[in-house]
Write a structure and sequence with these properties.
single chain; alpha/beta; Dimethylsulfoxide Reductase, domain 2; 6-stranded mixed sheet; 6-stranded mixed β-barrel; 29% helix
Length: 801
């Protein structure tokens, strides 16, 4: 190998930089001619990243002597969008650090101290499975299967066989007699329900419809960071913008990476006030006769008095609400909206006129805007902006919700059936522990029963960190979990030690996606109009005694029901044989698809782009009679008949309200809450590049590249004597967290933010892990009973140890 001294390097670089026209012959070409020895590998395997980021990406795993040497990403295809490489981000490429992490779970563990102390000892698989089986039998006999919960989790949501939800454990527990169900998600609880009452679905158009738009308006939407891989929405969004040349307006309290190089106007807004902004815009549209009255009369219920349901009260339309004829008698002028949103009135007027006059207009909202105590109202209000301007069902339009994907192709899923139908909102599992038998359909939104039969006594947590980290009010949640007279037994299945499995009684070591055969579930990601399928070829054997979920369940089935239950559960198949069965079930008669054997050898299959990116509600707009929406009236319900009934029958918490219209509602811990005098700053957590929720926090290189920083505006920093690099104590009545300060104008005054997903670590009353949920509230939203984790108020001070 030719060695280059520093002196030679400086001489050569000086010659190049100092005299472009010089005739000096440099020895650089001779370096290029030298042969560089390529490292040889025993195997190079395809695998997939199955975390819940909204993208699903392939990785190539380079293996020598049974160990991973390094990981690269997709190298097939070209640079042109449509034939492009599906390149994984740094998180996907860092999976090697998860496999060989110092905190990697290699053996089953049993708690030996008090629950929550984090004291465990290594035990055998036989002891672990025996203990779990005996406790399951005990709980079933004493309390019934309704006392068993497999809680919401997303750490391996992208898998088929190793899926944390709707995977092997749900299949087995269904055969054991069942478990309590859950509905909603921590991601989309408010928007999924809010838009269900509005459109009958919360699905949106493909982001590639931006190609056909002349104006793009984003409410709190950040696809470049949240879905940033080569197969994700972020790349597609940037590509579509380049082709369309549309003007882009981002309405967001934070200047995110989605705005960098792709934003013509940033409109900072107080978090949780989107419905007030839309109301101010609506006032301009109505006052200046800019709204599409023909569209509203034909397709909608409740915008004006003439389209209200017959039994609706007088002055109950959205137009009445906006113009001050409703119950509150307040006219929603731009000046009114300015006081709430901090968006100047003249900006609101200009926004209204521009959105009304420039068509087609693609309006979308991210999932951050809806994760407030009034999130259902915000999601519905933003959608109202679409229908007021007739921007629906046409090329270049969306429905006001989040962008979606045209379609995906994947094998069938592992079949399972739960004989128990009772279901709780996924966010209310801590309530189901402490007061389950008190929970009803009218007070807590439980489904398929009037009242729960039992409190939760057994938790089987697989591939998730929602037991503590991603749940609200971590300090209060920790107290609930520590009390083993409430929930009597907790099993945690994961690849590494986490803040959640600190509260487990038994911890089982899971195999990573690189240590097993599986399909990556395409429907767990958003590949837009270009579908692909990833098959994970087992790259290495599981580390230590780690085991796949499927093999764990076989062991547990043997203890719960002997050979009969094992045979029923497996149907005589190994994990790979199940994958073959599920592939053939879906594609055996499709001549355009490869055989299972061919797919396992290929690793990745890229299919042609769809001929047209999906346009939501296109068929409804073409013929609303032949293609009614899945709402009670079959139309767009600005006045929701279902919510009107709920408002009259549901029993709500103090201060809560359900209204059939998408009105702005004051939110608990929101900008107008009187407690803001004590805690003047709004705080919310954002998704960022270093983690997906809490996944990859354990990767030290990613933590170094993406520090856990608290963003604060220079005006707010100045009055608190804070500067970049300071340690700050962020606190409210729920708790205290420690973060490093970043002073930046990319966050509006009165608002602060930090990445969500920092791992909860309580030391002497301070969460030094910087988990934002130490500051969030456990009270659910009124309609969905969902997590209001972006409604939080805090004060910040310089930390002095």
């Amino acid at each position: 190998m030719h060695k280059i001294s520093r002196r030679q390097f400086l001489q050569w670089s000086g010659a190049l930089g100092g005299s472009v026209a010089a005739t000096t012959v440099l020895p650089i070409p001779s370096l290029a001619k030298q042969k560089v020895e390529e490292k040889q590998y025993d195997t190079i395997k395809w695998a997939g990243c199955t975390i819940n980021c909204g993208s699903k990406c392939p990785v190539r795993v380079f293996v020598n002597d049974g160990k991973i040497d390094h990981i690269e990403t997709d190298n097939t295809g070209g640079d042109e969008f449509g034939s492009h490489q599906v390149r994984a981000c740094l998180r996907g490429r860092s999976n090697r650090f998860r496999v060989y992490n110092p905190n990697r779970l290699r053996h089953p563990l049993k708690r030996v101290g008090k629950r929550g102390e984090g004291k465990f000892v290594k035990i055998s698989w036989d002891e672990a499975i025996d203990t779990i089986a005996n406790k399951l039998k005990e709980v079933k006999a004493k309390y019934g299967n309704e006392a068993i919960l497999i809680p919401y989790a997303t750490g391996t949501t992208g898998a088929i066989m190793n899926r944390c939800t709707k995977g092997p454990f749900m299949r087995l527990m269904g055969m054991f007699g069942g478990y309590i169900n859950y509905h909603n998600s921590y991601s989309t609880g408010q928007i999924a329900n809010g838009l269900k009452y509005f459109y009958g679905t919360h699905r949106g158009s493909d982001i590639m419809q931006v190609e056909n738009a002349k104006l793009v308006v984003m409410f709190g939407n950040n696809p470049v960071e949240t879905r940033m891989s080569g197969g994700g929405t972020g790349y597609a969004y940037k590509t579509a913008l380049e082709k369309s040349g549309a003007k882009i307006i981002h309405i967001d309290p934070r200047y995110s990476d989605s705005l960098v190089g792709a934003c013509d106007q940033w409109v900072p807004i107080e978090p949780g006030t989107d419905a007030a902004l839309v109301a101010g815009i609506a006032h301009v549209l109505i006052s200046e006769n800019l709204h599409d009255k023909e569209f509203l009369d034909k397709y909608c219920v409740g915008f004006s008095a003439n389209t209200l349901p017959k039994d609706a009260p007088k002055n109950a339309s959205y137009e009445d609400y906006i113009m001050g004829r409703g119950d509150d008698k307040v006219e929603k002028t731009p000046k009114w909206a300015e006081k709430i949103t901090k968006v100047p009135a003249d900006t609101i007027v200009k926004l209204a006129r521009e959105i009304a006059s420039v068509k087609p207009c693609y309006i979308a909202q991210g999932w951050g805007a809806q994760r407030h105590a009034n999130g259902e109202q915000s999601s519905r209000a933003i959608a109202t902006l679409n229908v007021m301007t007739g921007n629906l069902g046409l090329p270049g339009t969306n429905a006001g919700g989040r962008e979606h994907t045209t379609g995906w192709i994947e094998p069938a899923h592992l079949p399972f059936k739960n004989p128990i139908k009772d279901s709780i909102p996924c966010f209310l599992w801590t309530d189901a522990i402490t007061r389950g038998k008190e929970m009803t359909d009218l007070t807590d939104g439980v489904k398929n029963t009037k009242q729960l039969k039992q409190n939760i006594k057994f938790i089987l947590n697989t591939g998730g960190n929602c037991l503590i980290n991603q749940h609200s009010d971590t300090n209060k949640t920790a107290k609930i979990l520590e009390d083993d007279t409430l929930c009597e037994f907790i099993v945690d299945v994961n690849v590494t030690r986490t803040s959640s499995n600190k509260f487990a009684d038994i911890i089982l070591p899971d195999a990573t996606p690189l240590e097993q055969e599986d399909f990556v579930r395409s429907s767990a990601g958003y590949s837009n109009d270009r579908p692909y399928i990833i098959y994970s070829q087992k790259a290495i054997e599981p580390v230590g005694e780690a085991m796949t979920n499927y093999d764990m369940c076989i062991k547990l089935a043997q203890k719960l029901g002997g050979k009969e239950l094992v045979d029923k559960f497996t149907e005589g198949r190994t994990q790979k044989q199940w994958l073959e069965y599920l592939w053939n079930k879906k594609f055996e008669n499709n001549p355009n698809m490869p055989t299972f054997k061919q797919m396992t050898e290929m690793g990745i299959l890229k299919l042609p782009r769809y001929k047209k990116p999906y346009i939501v509600h296109e068929e409804f707009i073409k013929d609303p009679m032949a293609n009614p929406l899945k709402t009670p009236t079959g139309k767009i319900e600005i006045f929701s008949t279902a919510l009107d009934t709920m408002a009259k029958t549901w029993i709500l918490k103090k201060g809560q309200k359900i209204t059939p219209l998408p009105e702005f509602e004051n939110a608990k811990n929101g900008p107008l809450d009187p407690i803001r005098k004590k805690y003047p700053l709004q705080i919310f957590g954002y998704h960022y590049k270093g983690r997906t929720h809490s996944s990859f926090w354990e990767s030290a290189p990613l933590r170094e590249i993406n520090p856990n920083e608290l963003w604060i505006n220079p005006l707010d920093a100045k009055v608190r004597s804070l500067k970049t690099g300071d340690k700050a104590l962020v606190h409210n009545d729920h708790g205290k967290i420690l973060l490093t300060v970043k002073v930046t104008s990319k966050i509006m005054p009165g608002v602060t933010t930090c990445p969500q997903g920092g791992w909860y670590k309580n030391e002497n009353g301070i969460d030094v892990g910087g988990c934002i949920n130490t500051l969030t509230d456990l009270e659910p939203t009124a309609i969905s009973k969902a997590n209001p984790q972006h409604s939080a108020l805090v004060e910040i001070e310089k930390y002095r140890a």
